[in-house]
Specification:
The structure is a homodimer. With about 210 residues, chain A is mainly alpha-helical. Chain A folds into 2 domains: about 80 residues, Glutaredoxin (3-Layer(aba) Sandwich), CATH 3.40.30; about 120 residues, Glutathione S-transferase Yfyf (Class Pi), Chain A, domain 2. Chain A is about 50% helix and about 5% strand. Chain A has a 4-stranded mixed sheet. In chain A, a hairpin with a 5-residue loop joins strand 3 and strand 4. In chain A, helix 4 runs antiparallel to helix 5, helix 4 packs parallel to helix 6 and helix 5 packs across helix 7. The first copy, chain A, is globular and about 50 Å long. In chain A, about 45% of the residues are buried. The interface between A and B is large, with 40 and 40 residues.
Chain lengths: ~210, ~210
């Protein structure tokens, strides 16, 4: 197996924390996103979406979506479980992960990609150029207060997002908060549950890996 | 179990085809999206995201994300498998499903929601109002040719998208094509592999369910 990555970017970061929680060691190659490493012919041949992370499995399959990469690693390395311990718990983790991806990471990403000078002409990942859309910066920022509030409500009286166990949902929410710093957004003071949870999760060794 | 749905909308449609392929019968209640049924207090209490489908499981868990709903049904009703037969096949199905969701369904959705008069002030689902962004109509349409071309390349010499078996990936790609009709977009003639595959999938009894 081999992981193509750029450790500080949010989607790779989700996978790195997941791998560290599992205690796995997977050979890595950094794709230099700062210098167009994702647009070289050799990388395009591997992943035409021109994104990282990519996990190349033992049989040569290239997985380019974090949910697929982590679900696969969960299946071949089940312990500790990070996608739930029972069918219903797994469903709750997946449900929450998809919500966080769309409404948390997705909101930050639309504000970030459409405002950052280095992403001019790249409002979406991939080989086709898409102009930045200033309205998406505003929309992305406007989406966040509702997301933080929902996260806070969810964490009321809970140590973790789903069923008293650290899971992929916690990883995704944590990375959303880190990523939000890139656009200078942060969780409001009044979301005390999120702050308590964030501080606790920050102390996990997996978080400090990179 | 109970499914809250609006059968003709694309995300419910994915679940309905999945359920029909499994041969399951799940009690349903239609949420009248045409008349704001998703914004009633009772439905908001069930799903604050104000979206369908929602699957309420035996223990009262509300699942509101299609990937979680279908993964859960797959787990409790494994046959026929629609998320792959082996760990690597499951990874390939999930990888493709996420790509189709983001680059296929997502592209159509941004063109549709930002152009349709009935979605004025609702460029995103949920309780918060977001103005339509005309640039997203153009961007959504511009994304589709690349998506059809990638789908066509994938289907070269293949009966189904992943590993010779009908899977959730085929369901998601099929629904993308149906959904694209809502914005009068269609697969170009030259994508002969997609047309061949679409015609074959259209004949499945599950497709005719609704």
């Amino acid at each position: 197996m081999k992981l193509y990555t750029f450790a500080s970017a949010p989607n790779p970061r989700r996978v790195h924390i997941f791998i560290a929680e599992k205690g796995l060691v997977i050979p890595e190659e950094t794709v230099d996103l700062m210098n167009g490493g994702q647009f070289t012919d050799s990388f395009k041949a591997l992943n035409p979406h021109c994104t990282v992370p990519v996990l190349v499995t033992e049989d040569g399959t290239c997985l380019s979506q974090v949910s697929a990469i982590c679900s696969y690693l969960e299946e071949i390395h089940p312990n500790p479980p990070l996608y739930g311990r029972t069918a219903i718990e797994r469903a709750r983790v997946r449900d929450m992960c998809h919500w966080i991806y769309m409404d948390g990471i997705g909101a930050v990403a639309e504000a970030f990609r459409n405002s950052t000078p280095g992403f001019k002409g790249r409002s979406l990942p991939g080989q086709v150029s898409y102009d930045q859309i200033p309205e998406l910066v505003e929309r992305g920022r406007k989406r966040l207060p509702g997301f933080w509030k929902a996260l806070d409500a969810r964490l009321e009286g809970r140590e973790f997002l789903v069923d008293q166990h650290f899971s992929m949902a916690d990883i995704d929410a944590f990375v959303t908060i880190e990523f939000a710093r890139w656009i200078k957004e942060s969780v409001p003071e009044e979301c005390a549950n999120v702050h308590r949870w964030f501080e606790q999760v920050s102390r996990r060794p997996s978080i400090k890996t990179d």
